[in-house]
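Q: I'm writing up a methods section and want to include an example of the input and output format. Could you take the sequence below and give the corresponding predicted structure tokens, formatted cleanly so I can copy it straight into the document?
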Amino acid sequence: MNLRWSSLILACGLAMAGGMARHGVAQPLTNTKYGQPDLFRQLEEWLPTPNEYRTASGAPGRGYWQQRADYVIDVELDDEKQRLIGRETITYFNHSPDELRYVWLQLDQNHFHPQSTAHRSANAPSFSERQPIQLMEVLLYAEHFPGGFQIERVADGAGKLLPHTIVDTMMRIDLPEPLQPGSSIKLDVHWSFNIVDADLIKARSGYEYFKEDKNYIYEMAQWFPRLVAYTDNNGWQHKQFLGAGEFTLELGNYVVRITVPADHVVLATGTLQNPAEVLSDAQRQRLDDARKADRPVFIVTPEEAKANEQQRATGKKTWIFAADNVRDFAFASSRKFIWDAQGRRVGDREVLAMSLYPNEGEPLWSKYSTAAIIHTLNVYGRYTFDYPYPVAISVNGPVGGMEYPMICFNGPRPQKDGTYSAYTKYGLISVVIHEVGHNFFPMIVNSDERQWTWMDEGINTFLQYLAEQEWEDDYPSRRGEPADIVGYMTSSNQVPVMTNSESVLNLGPNAYAKPATALNILRETVMGRELFDFAFKEYARRWKFKRPQPADFFRTMEDASGIDLDWFWRGWFYSTEHVDVGISGVDLHLIDNGDPDLQATREREEKARQRPTLSEERNEPLTKLVETYPALKDFYNSYDTLEVTDEDRQSFKKFVESLDEDEKKLIESKTNFYVIRFRNDGGLVTPIVIEISYRDGSKELLTIPAEIWRRNSREVSKLLMTEREIESIELDPRKQMADADASDNHFPPRIESSRFRLFKQERTEKNPMQRSVERADAERKKREGKTDETAQPAGKPETNGAAANGAAANGAAADGAGMPQAPPEIAPQAAETPTPRGGGEAEEGDKKEPRPPMPMPVDESVPTPAEPRPAGTPSAGSK
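A: Here is the clean output for your methods example:
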């Protein structure tokens, strides 16, 4: 079997086995008679069977249910030891039809314990002769950091201790009696843990230390034991937290009391309940003014934050926050924070957009962070629903980019002198859009991140692209445009999008860029904006504050649009094929009306246009035998095969007289019948978009639906009937198909041009003999007491010494101290300038500033390249 097609079947089979086999559906048999798979085969045999919880339309069923967990938490931040100490009361509501004999809690901080599954199963880094010091620091820190929860008490609401078992990042609590459907239970849990240094371990939360003023910024997430989600399709979703697969959580109401040093500023999920106790009169007034302001207002000014850095309060304050109908809770705390805010009307409510950042974030953060929050709420709301929460917060600290209900952590900062590159500017704007956008997916449309990363990251990246394009013309988006995904789509190191989060290869391209690009293509090329926007908004409406699965998204998009998209989901989400369509050829067919005189004229003209062959040209002057002996000629030497007879004309006349008027018009038609042949080399079926240029100067854009491939997914042809004469055809002229190879996208074929630069080869690295001569020369100068002004250049030995071996005296360069040089034409290519000994990266000025497009949000657990930045500042990459 052709390898390309067998790989598609394998990819689909793996995806089904990993995600759909639990529904008891067997893999469809391969058609051995036709030699290619049916890429339009319906997905119903793969998708879970509809039931009373989830309907065939993709909507929640009449029996849909989900659990609920409410929290009351008291937590204290130890700023001296970088620890959190807390206690929580959880009220857990069993809305399922099942009896529960135990419940599970997530202990995500156990991920940082040296004996965690994540740490013990991590692959070794690549070692070479030279290793950066930072890598060693990270490895040793992770190996010895005393991370993980210390669980001090687990009891029920009456104070009775409950048996519990910790399994890596999960804890099972055995209940004294089964929790019946429709009932609830209270759980009391006391705990503490050491906060991770987020500058050493790339985490989703942690602290950042500033050596200059000896202060910390704390961004706290996954900081308390949280109820594991219990769902209709998975039961307990207690897959261990290994780092890539994020979180699956229950919605609930929170009251959280956070005790910190008295000079700290704190913002968190929810609204502040006791401003009079923690804010000054001036700060409260500024906060009220900000609600009606048309630009951000400082609640804590840069000058106040700077002064606050120099002080150390001895007392404590407790900040109280409340949040309703959220699935998680995060907070940030520091005495370094500047705080700005601006109110914005969103639907029928006022939303307060706010940003926290240190002076190290200026002037970038006060200019862009809060503005990007408001822009995100506006754009996302048009495509989904109005933002339902009272606040939206962006915080600058050690975390490159992470999302939580109403609050997110974002990393980009300017240089120490306040300047910043375009890379950093757009990096900040994009990461704020991305992380604030996560409020919609998955904080409200509450998908299962532990299982399917793409359901929040891919969908959110798609909306991020739409928001970026509304920020300014030519915004340098890095994900969303079809042409930008081609490199990944044609690579070999990939798995289908429908792969469990912990098994995904190249998480950024796979779970962010590819699904975002797929949705953009679906919107622009397959469905059209109107149909797509309606169906997408319906999906968001149906699953707002509910928990969708991939099948619910696929089915809703088809149900609300009336378009069968199974071929699209199969290709883009279940396979690793790519788009590569080419024009195989074009044939022109014309109507011949049968007029013998016209036919003879055409054939004579065609014969006259034909160029003689080489042999015909060379044989033409030869004396022919029949010219020497004319008697050899007969009838056929003068017979004209194209001569039209009266019999031919009469026959044609009778034919015309037999036709009615419409038929006579038809045979006189000047219509050109063009048959355009297309070839599918990539395996992924797609609409075919072509631009036709006519000889009269006009152009026509034609979109052929993907269904043209339904009976043959390798080769198809399209008939085009037109009175105009085609001059050329271009496939995918506006780069909307993610076509991998444009070299076969033109008819007639174009000459592809490129440019190359010339360089002069030079030897830049000194050999050991040269370095020895330099050292000896330096020692000699030192002994003779010569000054720099009178000394000869280093590396050029004296011409009267034996060491020179006559080379310099003969005019030869002293390369190798008298050793012969390779001629210039065969000299080795110049080596790259090595990094100076002692380790570390090149100096900042030695690095070229990256091209303006910003860094892409990627998972926090996956290392990503970062722009050079001042010491102690976080990278611009984000989750």
